[in-house]
Design goal:
The chain is mainly α. The protein contains 5 helices and 2 strands, in the order H-E-H-H-E-H-H. Helix 1 packs across helix 2, helix 1 packs across helix 4 and helix 3 packs across helix 4. The protein is flat, with a radius of gyration of 19 Å.
Length: 145
Amino acid sequence: MKHFWQEQGEKIRTILICSAIFLVMLSAIALLSSAVMRLFGFTYRSVGSIILFFMIATALSFPLCLVAGALPKALYEVGMLTSRKVAFLLYLVLDTLATAFGLGVVDYYMESVAAGELAILVISFLLALPGADDLREAGEGPPSQ
């Protein structure tokens, strides 16, 4: 057992440190997002419930957000979307809906928070905007036929 900790100790410490950094960043984003959502009627019982709300919603909407990010890029690269602006708008709509779905499901089942549809849509749209840079950095355009 001691041999295991000597070999794997550095890897385990690295994973724990990276996990802690990830949770701190997610908590900060959750607190900032809740401040914006509060303008649109978001209510909660405690700060812990806000952080839990966003952690569960992040885990729930992550697979959908991956598809929402990849689909417009793929359609643009193969030439099915002829304009980068259309791909950008498709990404914004899909990512906003994917995030809103995750937030909405968690809101429905979590009694300690209450978020209206407008608050969910606004924060979903705002959270989709930073990911749009990936689409702007996509290839120069659809392949020539």
